Amino acid sequence: MDFTILAVVLLIGIGIPFRNKLIRKYREEKKQKDKDRDAK
Questions:
Q1: How far apart are CA 25 and CA 32, in angstroms?
Q2: Which ranges does the record mark as transmembrane (predicted)?
Q3: Long-range contacts, stretch 32-37, CB < 8 angstroms, 24+ apart
Q4: Where does the pLDDT of residue 38 fall: very low under 50, low under 70, confident under 90, or very high at 90 and above?
Q5: pLDDT at 40 over 70
Q6: 3-state secondary structure string, 1-40?
Protein backbone atom coordinates (compact mmCIF):
# COMPACT_ATOMS: atom_id res chain seq x y z
CA MET A 1 0.00 0.00 0.00
CA ASP A 2 2.71 2.48 0.99
CA PHE A 3 4.75 1.56 -2.07
CA THR A 4 1.75 2.23 -4.34
CA ILE A 5 1.25 5.69 -2.86
CA LEU A 6 4.96 6.42 -3.23
CA ALA A 7 4.94 5.28 -6.86
CA VAL A 8 1.91 7.46 -7.68
CA VAL A 9 3.44 10.51 -5.98
CA LEU A 10 6.70 10.06 -7.88
CA LEU A 11 4.83 9.57 -11.15
CA ILE A 12 2.79 12.74 -10.66
CA GLY A 13 5.64 14.76 -9.17
CA ILE A 14 8.29 13.87 -11.74
CA GLY A 15 6.51 12.26 -14.68
CA ILE A 16 4.06 15.02 -15.56
CA PRO A 17 6.54 17.95 -15.53
CA PHE A 18 9.00 15.81 -17.51
CA ARG A 19 6.29 14.97 -20.06
CA ASN A 20 5.30 18.63 -20.34
CA LYS A 21 8.91 19.57 -21.00
CA LEU A 22 9.12 16.98 -23.79
CA ILE A 23 5.86 18.20 -25.33
CA ARG A 24 7.05 21.82 -25.20
CA LYS A 25 10.35 20.85 -26.85
CA TYR A 26 8.48 18.94 -29.59
CA ARG A 27 6.19 21.91 -30.26
CA GLU A 28 9.15 24.30 -30.49
CA GLU A 29 10.88 22.04 -33.02
CA LYS A 30 7.67 21.68 -35.02
CA LYS A 31 7.15 25.45 -35.03
CA GLN A 32 10.73 25.96 -36.17
CA LYS A 33 10.27 23.48 -39.03
CA ASP A 34 7.10 25.26 -40.13
CA LYS A 35 8.97 28.60 -40.16
CA ASP A 36 11.77 27.08 -42.21
CA ARG A 37 9.25 25.67 -44.67
CA ASP A 38 7.49 29.04 -45.02
CA ALA A 39 10.79 30.84 -45.62
CA LYS A 40 11.61 28.72 -48.67
A1: 11
A2: 6-23
A3: none
A4: confident
A5: no
A6: CHHHHHHHHHHHHHHHHHHHHHHHHHHHHHHHHHHHHHHC
